[in-house]
Structures are given as C-alpha cells and as structure tokens.
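Progress note, sequence design subtask.
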C-alpha cells in the first residue's frame, strides 16, 4: 500500500504545471518575437500604403542625371577615339623616324 501512495504522489507531481526557467524564457522570447512581428507588420502596412509613383521633382532630377551620364559617355567615346588616333599617328611617326635613322646610319658607313 505504501508503494501505491508513492506512485500516486509521483503522478500528482508530474501532472502539476511546472514553471521552469526554460518555460518562462520561452514565453518571454515568444512575446518579444510577437511584438517584433507586430512592429514589422505595421512597417509593411506603411510601406504598402505609400504611393508607388515617383515625385515629379525626383523624376526630373533622375532624368537630368541620366542625360548627363549619357553626355559624359559620348565625351568619353570621343576622347577614346582621339587617343587611339593619336596613338596610331605616334606609332607611324616612330616607325618613320626609325627608318630615317637606319638610312642615315647606312650612309654614314659608306663614306
């Protein structure tokens, strides 16, 4: 009979809700997560309610910037072509001078 009462006490203790540190920590974490989720939902609602159209001032500024970038790109291409042309001319002049120097050396050796 003593064994039955001991088993009964163990069963009663197991059925009682226990407030362990793990359960309280989990519940505080859960409430923190839920508060954060509510804040994020509010932010999403605010973002979704904002107009999708860009203000005209910003659109004009963006268009001006794009135009300026296109102009700079055109200038860069023109500069690149000019540099390539000057490089070709420089190589031609260098080859011409080398040729002249070789002719001059040949004449010098013959005299």
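Output:
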């Amino acid at each position: 009979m003593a064994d039955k009462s001991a088993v009964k006490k163990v069963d009663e203790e197991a059925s009682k809700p226990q407030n362990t540190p793990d359960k309280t920590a989990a519940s505080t974490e859960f409430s923190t997560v839920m508060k954060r989720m509510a804040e994020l939902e509010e932010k999403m609602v605010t973002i979704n309610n904002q107009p999708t159209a860009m203000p005209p001032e910003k659109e004009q500024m963006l268009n001006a910037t794009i135009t300026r970038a296109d102009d700079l790109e055109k200038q860069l291409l023109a500069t690149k072509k000019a540099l390539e042309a000057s490089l070709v001319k420089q190589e031609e002049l260098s080859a011409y001078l080398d040729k002249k120097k070789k002719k001059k050396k040949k004449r010098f050796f013959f005299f």
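Residues 55-111 form one domain. Work on this subtask will continue into the next period as scheduled.
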